[in-house]
Amino acid sequence: MFELSERMKRIPPYLFAEIDAMKKKKLAEGVKVIDLGVGDPDLPTPKHIVSAMQKAVERVDRQKYPSYEGMLEFRESVSEFYMRRKGINLDPQKEVIALIGSKEGIAHLPLAFVNEGDYVLVPDPGYPVYYASTVMAGGRAFFMPLNAENSFLPDLEAIPEDVRKKAKIMFLNYPNNPTSAIAEKDFIKSAVDFCIDNKIILAHDYAYGEIGLDGYRPKSFLENKNAFEVTIEFNSLSKTYNMTGWRIGFACGNEEIVKGLLKVKTNVDSGVFEAVQEAGIAALRGSDEFIDENCRIYAERRDILVDGLKNLGFAVEKPKATFYVWCRVGGSSIEFVKRILDGAGIVATPGIGFGKNGEGYVRFALTRSKEVIAEAIKRLERLF
Ligand SMILES: *Cc1c(COP(=O)(O)O)cnc(C)c1O
């Protein structure tokens, strides 16, 4: 009786919901499923962060409507964090806002800047929200292919002139989900220059900015000296501090862009629960040893998974960042995922779910213990 809007019809069903249904069916059949599908850390939020929330939640003044842009103290802690970790200076009053997770900010950004028919440049494969938010705002997506030959960086030269003219936003995401590729100084410079030349907002999704492995430190796009002219960087406490369920993130960078996003948000939500912001402050001001230890754990898991897959003959490289392994399987990624779920009880994410250039690949998430990952490899050895 109630037909979905044309816009919603253009958005495919959220991939992870389908995988979840497949997994539930297997569990109901009694299979001990190993889920390497969804990128949700298995490890707990650190204790000092949990206790900051516990204390704050009892305070009546923390139970009220928060401010739209986030508590000043939270924004200050973001700015201290960027200075400490990246040497970047952010004005907490004008260049930082709190988000209900970075996904929320990414989903709302096009509403602030995209008119009917404008282009948004979207990486393929990519986090599905870039495309969905483009469509919800009435924009058109122009897909930028990411492939192995280009180290999973888009070829900016290949973007046609007419698209450049009508493009309002370019989404980029490094360290990248799902390919785990990284961006270095030269590429960042070319992306910033491209966006300045074409008056395009550079929306950098930096969700894995603190998941660098073997001592590698993923670059912020704001390290580029001209980046503040065009860049908004989305960041999150979800992956850095194992806080996916808490729903807190932030956007920072160009003042005008941050302000535009805030205008949408003031009409949609009423900010982040202040007790959660207190937890965020404790996280961002806490010891960075937690971050190092977290990354050490992912590196150890990565080695077990990648070495095991290589032994089985898969073409796969050791990522320097993120907690994903992007594995070339050839042929249909959905068929491959079904095969390992049926034959080995392992959940992985088919690359096609991230866009047509993801076909032929499967994404494994390192969000299970090394023992469980070793068990997954054993099962795969029996299957292949
Ligand atoms: C996890 C993830 C996010 C969203 O994180 P939240 O802050 O929890 O909303 C955004 N972008 C990418 C690429 C992610 O993988």
Description:
- The protein has helices spanning 6-9, 15-28, 47-57, 72-86, 102-113, 129-136, 161-166, 185-198, 255-266, 274-285, 289-311, 333-344, 370-383; strands at residues 34-35, 96-99, 119-124, 140-145, 167-173, 201-205, 231-236, 249-253, 324-328, 346-347, 349-350, 361-365.
- The chain has 384 residues and is α/β, with parallel strands linked by helices.
- It folds into two domains: 6-44 and 289-383, Aspartate Aminotransferase, domain 1, CATH 3.90.1150.10; 47-284, 3-Layer(aba) Sandwich (Aspartate Aminotransferase, domain 2).
- The strands form three sheets. A seven-stranded mixed β-sheet has the order 2-8-7-6-5-3-4, sandwiched between helices.
- β5 (167-173), α8 and β6 form a beta-alpha-beta unit.
- Bound molecules: pyridoxal-5'-phosphate (PLP).
- Residues 39, 101-103, 127, 173, 177, 205, 207, 236, 238-239, 244, 249 line the site of pyridoxal-5'-phosphate.
- The site of pyridoxal-5'-phosphate has 14 residues, from α5.
Task: Give a summary of the structure in a few sentences.
The protein has 384 residues and is an alpha/beta fold. The protein contains 13 helices and twelve strands.
Approximate strand percentage? 5-15%
Architecture of the largest domain, CATH level 2? 3-Layer(aba) Sandwich
Low-confidence stretches: none
Mean pLDDT: 96
Task: Write the topology of this structure.
Elements: H1 6-9, H2 15-28, E1 34-35, H3 47-57, H4 72-86, E2 96-99, H5 102-113, E3 119-124, H6 129-136, E4 140-145, H7 161-166, E5 167-173, H8 185-198, E6 201-205, E7 231-236, E8 249-253, H9 255-266, H10 274-285, H11 289-311, E9 324-328, H12 333-344, E10 346-347, E11 349-350, E12 361-365, H13 370-383
Parallel strand pairs: 1-10, 3-4, 3-5, 5-6, 6-7
Antiparallel strand pairs: 2-8, 7-8, 9-12, 11-12
Helix pairs in contact: 3-10, 4-10, 5-6, 5-9, 11-13
Bound molecules: pyridoxal-5'-phosphate.
The site of pyridoxal-5'-phosphate has 14 residues, from helix 5.
